[in-house]
Amino acid sequence: MSDTVSFGYQEVAPDEKTRRVGEVFSNVARRYDIMNDAMSGGMHRLWKDRFVRRVKPRPGEQILDMAGGTGDIAFRLADAGASVTVADINPQMLEVGMGRAQARGFDTLVWTEANAESLTFPDRFFDAYTIAFGIRNVTDIPSALREAHRVLRRGGRFFCLEFSTTLWPGFAEAYDFYSHRIVPKVGKLIAHDEDSYRYLIESIRRFPDMPTFERMIGEAGFVQTKVEPMLGGLVAIHSGWKI
């Protein structure tokens, strides 16, 4: 990892990014659904449904949902009968997720505070690893991908749902205007937090493009890597297998 990493459009020290990202998610935890609605026009629910269909969770499987604090993906996985461990570096996000799980009657989920770059789980422990809208906020993405590979059993599968850059002419410019000009103002109006929303949009622009990220997944040891773009690549499902 280099001496500096991106925090939105800024270059900062790795430890500084970790601290500042933590502050962002502590600030938005209680309004996380509003944030996702603002950034996706409400479509994140459909994307998450499609994502979990691609994962194909099965009863009895052990699945790690990384950066899954509020439970959106974990609830869907658990509905299919999988045994889900929800891990997140941010305790405020986990607190929101545990409250939502209790309200919805999900009492079998395991919740743990964990850093994606240095997991404490043993080797070859999980059947699947999922991460939705979280990988771009990780300070050392290659380390997180290697850890994902390590904790998966042979035959295990990796799935990542993340914003990217749409390639559709016209739509790219329209979303760029919406995300940079409108979303931070929505954050200020609804959540009283313009800066956190501005960072989240900027972090999308600094995230590797789809071919680059697919290559990073392969470099971590995964095979049969695949990317499935939606809305021309505004958001994409990345996947790979451990053999």
TrEMBL record:
Name of this chain's protein: Ubiquinone/menaquinone biosynthesis C-methyltransferase UbiE
KW Transmembrane helix (keyword) present: no
Reactions the enzyme catalyzes: a 2-demethylmenaquinol + S-adenosyl-L-methionine = a menaquinol + S-adenosyl-L-homocysteine + H(+); a 2-methoxy-6-(all-trans-polyprenyl)benzene-1,4-diol + S-adenosyl-L-methionine = a 5-methoxy-2-methyl-3-(all-trans-polyprenyl)benzene-1,4-diol + S-adenosyl-L-homocysteine + H(+)
Matches recorded under NCBIfam families: MenG_MenH_UbiE
EC number: 2.1.1.163, 2.1.1.201
Biological role stated in the UniProt entry: Methyltransferase required for the conversion of demethylmenaquinol (DMKH2) to menaquinol (MKH2) and the conversion of 2-polyprenyl-6-methoxy-1,4-benzoquinol (DDMQH2) to 2-polyprenyl-3-methyl-6-methoxy-1,4-benzoquinol (DMQH2).
Pathway per the UniProt entry: Cofactor biosynthesis; ubiquinone biosynthesis; Quinol/quinone metabolism; menaquinone biosynthesis; menaquinol from 1,4-dihydroxy-2-naphthoate: step 2/2
Gene Ontology MF terms in the entry: methyltransferase activity
Sequence positions that bind S-adenosyl-L-methionine: T70, D88, N115, A116
Enzyme class: transferase
BP GO terms, sorted: methylation
Family indicated by similarity: Belongs to the class I-like SAM-binding methyltransferase superfamily. MenG/UbiE family.
InterPro entries attached to this UniProt entry: SAM-dependent_MTases_sf, UbiE/COQ5_MeTrFase, UbiE/COQ5_MeTrFase_CS
Organism the protein comes from: Sphingomonas tabacisoli
UniProt keyword list: Menaquinone biosynthesis, Methyltransferase, S-adenosyl-L-methionine, Transferase, Ubiquinone biosynthesis
